[in-house]
Structures are given as structure tokens and as C-alpha cells.
Amino acid sequence: MGCSGLTSLTLPAGITSIGDDTFYGCSGLTSLTLPAGITSIGEYAFSGCSGLTSLTLPAGITSIDKYAFSGCSRLTSLTLPAGITSIGEFAFSYCSGLTSIYVYAEKVPRIGRYAFEGCASRKCTLYVPKGTYDNYRLSEFGYFENIVEFDATGIDKTTTSTDVEEVSRYSLNGQRLVGPTKGLNIVKYSDGSVKKVAVE
């Protein structure tokens, strides 16, 4: 808490939860790697981490407590996995730099009041699974004016293919990536093929 000089953090496998206030005010933190086993993030856990620029939560995350990422003002993109069931009040409040949020949950998570208070409701686009637009629009997610449906089903087959144009890129757990991301990426090409690509 308050370790403003901390710039990167990699938590070991085996951790299942992050408690209240753990990294509160770690404003120098620019990159964050959360292990796959984490299922819950406590109150104010990363609140005030204003240096964070992107956040992809592991597939096992089911709950994010209140104010968990409040004030992460430089966060531009956010990915919420399919298993997310609850988001606390003010969880992402004042994340004023957000321009895109991808939600993979087919069922709208239980979401507290003002979860996105202070975010740019017109500037940020919310991407939700196909067929869920109305449900998201009627929830607290309806705070965002731009809601777009996308194919959140992920990857169903992989092949090794030839040089064709890249159409989209995903992480191993099927979450959409905006560009090459360190680790193993799965890339869809214009001929319908899919290739695993290692990014250093």
C-alpha cells in the first residue's frame, strides 16, 4: 500500500485472492500480471494505481470488490472474463482514460452502483457478447452510450498457416487482444486459419 515507486509486479502462481487495500496508491505501477488462479480482488486493492494503462483480468476472476480499481485514470482498456459474476460499487470509478471495455460474460454480472462513475460515457466503447446488448443496456453498464456486440466465443481450432492478413488476435483463454502481447498469442487470419504466435 502506498509504494509509489513500484513500477511492475508479477505475482506467483498459487495466489487465489488479493485482499483489501493491498496495492492502494501504488501510482508508479505501469504493468500488472495477475496469475490464473486468482478468483477475487478486494476493496481498494488497486485504487489510485494511476500509472496502469491496460488490464486483462485472468479467466478465473469471479468477483471484483468495491473501489478495487477506482482512480486508475490512465487505464485505457479493460477486459472482463466470461466467469465474472459480481462487480462492486465504484469498482472502476474515475478510470477517466478508458476507451474500450470488453466483457466476455454472457450473463450480465451483478454490478454495484456507480461502478463506472467518472468514466467517459461517450468516449469509451463497451463490447459485449452477441445477443446480450439489451441486457447490458438495462444494467449499470448502460452508463456507456456506445455498446457494441462482438463474437466472444473465442478459438475453436488451431492450425499452422501461410502468410495472409491478420484479422484478430486473442490470448490463450480466448480474450481479444488489441495488439501483440507478451506470451503466446492466437491469431486469426483472413483465410479463416488460426495460428499460435509466441511474442517475446
List key phrases describing it.
five-stranded parallel beta sheet; 2% helix; mainly beta; 200 residues; Leucine-rich repeat, LRR (right-handed beta-alpha superhelix); 2 domains; single chain
Explain what the structure shows:
- The protein has 200 residues and is mainly β.
- It has 2 domains: 1-152, Ribonuclease Inhibitor (Leucine-rich repeat, LRR (right-handed beta-alpha superhelix)); 154-200, no CATH class.
- Helices cover 2% and strands 28% of the residues.
- It contains 1 helix and 16 strands.
- A 5-stranded parallel β-sheet has the order 2-4-6-8-10, with no helix packed on it.
- Helix 1 links the parallel strand 11 and strand 12 (146-150).
- The longest helix is centred in the last third of the chain and has 5 residues, at 133-137.
Give the gist of this structure:
The protein has one helix at residues 133-137, and strands at 8-10, 17-18, 31-33, 40-41, 54-56, 63-64, 77-80, 86-87, 100-103, 110-111, 125-129, 146-150, 166-170, 176-177, 183-189, 194-199.
Please give the share of residues in helix: under 10%
Using the 3D structure, state the CATH architecture of the largest domain: Alpha-Beta Horseshoe
Distance linking N and C termini: 31 Å
CATH superfamily of the largest domain: Ribonuclease Inhibitor
DSSP strand tally: 16
| Largest sheet data | 5 strands, parallel
* Cα-based radius of gyration, to the nearest Å: 17 Å
Mean residue pLDDT:
88
CATH topology tier name of the largest domain: Leucine-rich repeat, LRR (right-handed beta-alpha superhelix)
**Percentage beta strand:** 25-35%
